[in-house]
Structure formats: C-alpha cells, structure tokens
Amino acid sequence: MAEVHLLEFTTEEIQEKFPLHWCVWNDNTQKLEELLASKLYNTELADPHGRTPLLLAVALGFDESVKILLKYSCDASATDKQGWNVTQEAVGTGDPDLISTIIQHREYQRFTQKSAGITDILEALEEADDFYVEMKWEFSSWIPLISRMCPNDSYKIYKSGATVRVDTTLKGFDQMNWQRGNQSYIFKGGTRSSEFFDIDHDRKSYWKECVSIRDDTMTLDSLKPPPSVVSSRLMSQNVTSVLDHENISFTRQKAGFLGWGGDKTDNINGYEAKVYSVSGVELVTRTRTEHLSEEDIIRLQEEKKEAQSKVPAVLNFLTHSEHEEEQNKDNIINPTSSNPYVMSIEEYFNPRLHPGKDVGHLRQMTSRTQKFSATVALSDEFPLSLQDQVLPIINLMANSSSHFAKLRDFITLQLPAGFPLKIEIPLFHVLNARITFSNINGVEKCPDGVVVLEEAVEKESAADEDDEQVRTNKRRCVIDKSIFDVYRSYKDLGTDVGMYRDTGYSQRDEEDELLQLAIQQSLSEASFQGEGGIDTANLPELEYRGWTVGANQEDEELQRAIRESLQGDVTSDANNAPVAESLNEEEQLKLVMRLSAQEDEDADKRRREEEEELEKILALSLTEK
After folding, report:
1. How far apart are CA 564 and CA 71, in angstroms?
2. Are 265 and 255 in contact (CB under 8 A)?
3. CA distances from 535 to 65, 557, 573 (A)
4. Structure confidence by residue, pLDDT tens digits, 195-239
5. At what angle are helices 86-93 and 227-234 packed, to 10 degrees?
6. What is the pLDDT of residues 455-512, one digit of tens each?
7. SS3 assignment, position 422
8. Please, which residues have CB within 8 angstroms of residue 418's CB and are 6 or more apart in sequence?
9. DSSP SS3 for 147
10. Most CB contacts within 10 A, which of 204, 301, 312, 375?
C-alpha cells in the first residue's frame, strides 16, 4: 500500500489524462484513430518522460500507430526531456522504413508550417521601423589554446519593409575546417509568396528558395528522402545538445570594491547597460550508438582515434570528458525488445519509482555536461525593439544557422527588462559565443546603401551633452533598395526547396558534433608545431583554411599573441623539439592549467587595478568636498 501512495499516476488516471498514450501503449490503432478524428485531445501532450504519443509510438516500434498519428499531423519534430527528436528516436530503432516515413512527414510539416510562419514573421517586419545593425559574434572557450584560435564574425543586418539582408564572412565549417567567405542571405516577402536567396559572393552564385502561402504543388510523396539520407543516418552517431535552463537565474552585478559601489552598469557602444550574471545553465551533449553495426562502430572509433592523435593528449582529455549514461542493467528480460524490462504502463508513467528503466531499444549512450555561466548587459536606451525588430530576423536566420537557433532559444527565456546589447550563449560543451550589437542605423560608420536621417525633435537647448545623446537616439535610416538585389552576373544554381540540396540533405542535428571535430582539426593544424609551438611556415595555409591569419593588422596581432603565449610557456629541448610533445598526459594537463591560471590571474590583476583606481578617485572626490 505504501508504494501505491507514492504513485504519481494510477492506471485509471493514465487512461483518463493520457488517452492517446494509452491507445499507443496497447497498440489499439482503431481506438487511436477514433480519438484523433474527434479532435478533442491534445496530440502534443507529453508524458512524464517528455514523450508525445508519436514519440512513444516510435520508441515502441508500433509502425501502424506511427502512420495514424502522422496522418493527423502530429508533430514529427517533437523532442523528449533528454532532447531526442522523433527522427533520432526512429534512428535508434534501426528501422530504415520507419526513418524514411518520419523524415518524409517532418519535411512536409516543416515546409507547410514554414509557409505560414514566414508570413507572420514578414508581416511583423513590415510593421516595424526600418533599421541597420551589426551583430558581432565572438567565439571563445574555457580551454586557453582553443579560445585563442576561435574565429570571430560580424553580421551586417539590413531591414526595409518586409525585406531583409544579412551579410556574414564566417560560413561555418566543412570537412573539419573553419570556412570563411563572403556570404549573404536575402529574404523578400510578398503578398502571395516569399523568396529566399543564399548568395556566395566568392563563387558569384546563389541558391533560391520560394515559399508560397499556399503551395499545392508540394506533396507528401514528393518529399520522400533518397536512400542515401536514410543510410547516412544509420551509419552516423545519434547526437543531441540540450540547454537545461530550469535553474537559470539572473543576478545584478555589483560595482566597486567588494560590491560596495551599488549595481554595476557598463557603457557599450555609447549606451548605458545594466550588467547581470547568468548562472544555473547546463549544456548537455548526448551521443547514442545502439543502432550502429559493429563495422560502423569500428570505423567511427578509428576516425576518432585518428583525429585525436593529431591533438595533444591533454586537449583530448579536456575536450572528451564524457561518461556513459547510467542505465539500469538489472531485470532486463528481453534485451532485443522495444520494451526490454517488460514494463507495465503504470511503471512507465511513474519513472521515479523505476529509475534507469525505459522503453525503446537498450541505449548505448555517453554524455558530456558543461555548466555555463556568463554575463548579460541590458540597455533601456537602445533604440531597437527586441520583440518587434530583432527577434523576427533571428527567427528567419534560425532556419539556416544552428547558432541563431540557440540564440533564439536563449533570448526567449525570461530575460530581465531591456535590450540585450551583449549576451553570451553556450554553443556546445567547449565553445561559447558572445554577441554584441553595435552601429545601429549606421551612426558609428555608415555603410554603403544606408542613409542616416535625423528626426526633427523639439529641443530646448542643443548645447549640453545630454541633448546630443537624445539626437543620437532619434536617428533613423533609409536602406537603398538596390541592397536587396541579386547581381545579374551571378550564377543561379537552381531553386532549393530547403530539404535535399545536392546529394543529400543537411543534418543539422549533428552540427554541434561536427563543430567539435572542426575545432580538433584546427588544433591539429595549428598547435604545437615547429619552434615556439606554431609552425609559422604554414600560416598562409591557415588563410586558405578559413582563419585569414595575417590578412590584416588585427589578425597579425592575434597571430603574434599566440606565438608569444606559447613561446613563453612551451620551451624546447636540446634537439629543438617542443617539450610539450614529450610530456606525459599529467604534465601536459599541468601546462595547460598553468596557462589558464595565468589568464585568470591577469584578469584578476586588471580588475583589482581598476577597483583601486576607482577607490582613489572616490577618496579624492570626498577630500575635495
């Protein structure tokens, strides 16, 4: 009786509150279709594991139930509590037909939902004031050597009516290398359809995507994925990254010595901003391999070893601090079944009483957790509206960039009041991004195609500095329409429906894992080579690989700083070979930790000097009074 008292859900409560899950669990397809046809039940209701009825049907491998749920447009992109989406859950079953069906419906839903969603976004943009703004992305890591080698990028955003252009120079990564180039995304909204251009200025070419408000030519049958897409899924690891923000908190930072100076403010690009500390956020990256064949596992292990062999052992240790997820290995009755513990529905709906037990094929899973802390600077003076002007553009870019998708997820949390002039987000377990907004409406440096206007504002006096600040905040801009034109000399690579470009479609679910491998490859190309730690003979090659080292004065200073840092901490032996390569793992760990500690010590020293200087100024001002 004591156990019954601890139950969160009894059998009767499950049947009453989760009728669709009940039908799926019992594979009662006739009753399931009746309930769905009535349209009286929430098809996206999640059970205690975070599974919708569709996710549960996929995990249990009930193909007929899956088809019925998809027939009634259940969300084929839903995710459970651990971050696994429907496609990834299907991959875990190893069933190629099920994977193909899920991907087919998912892409059809994305296309139809995108048509309606894009219309709403462009309508919101049409109503908002036109503007120009720059977003600087600074990638960094808690690992010193990686942090010094991470690239930066500046997105230039032009908005006029329902038309948007975004310029970038960091295209991403390809074949394990950072990729730079001149890239533009142009979004043109129309009354009946919208056009999207993905432009490569280096190659003088572009892809075009058309999204109609109503497109009857796009059918479910036309979106069946090619066999190469399914086989690629079955031969790759299942990877997901989840931002756990249940315990997130924002605390106002204090200024002055030991926080005696009150709430801290910062001047960012001419705007006063309140500074908050962000804590309680974790980024969890999970990897599953139960669907892989023995040959695939051996192949992936060899590829991983080859990549790690090119990186100093200590960095492999720091970037691969993963552990196997705990799984209840007791009471397994049928290890090949989709219900290996032969759980009852009552046991499934009360996971706290049965930790480690679950349905679906037994998982082979590892995970990495990064505790994330950062600062956010919010301004009440910034002339842009986050909700009306900036967020719609971030939503547009989220379709093309996982970085923007993570930014969208973070800023839609309950941030304190104000515009986030500077904000940090975790990208994956060793890489963070700091985003700063600047050059609003081209006031600091007016780019081509932007004309700065100044609103006529009644002023009592134009002599004091406060009035000048008011005039600055009231400036608007006009964007030349030619900014949104695609050069006629550029090659049209065809119309892209957004799903299956070239030989296969883009698997953004694995993008974070690929980014990690890109960082490893970058390190293997540039770290601990030659005298002083960097092979200067190969620096021109780094420009080809997308780092643009030595391309301008700023990059040359970065290059010099990297060399000097490594020369100061990595000495050579009599044979002029770097000592770091001859050190064991423990000694290498001490070396990198010393580098990290030195960076922290320098930062603390600068902070103490600033506080001491402030104390002197305060003391002097009190003496003068």
Report:
1. 62
2. yes
3. 59, 16, 17
4. 889 999 999 999 888 776 555 567 888 888 999 989 989 999 998
5. 80
6. 544 444 444 444 444 444 457 889 999 999 998 899 998 765 444 443 334 344 444 4
7. strand
8. 273, 274, 378, 379, 380, 382
9. helix
10. 312
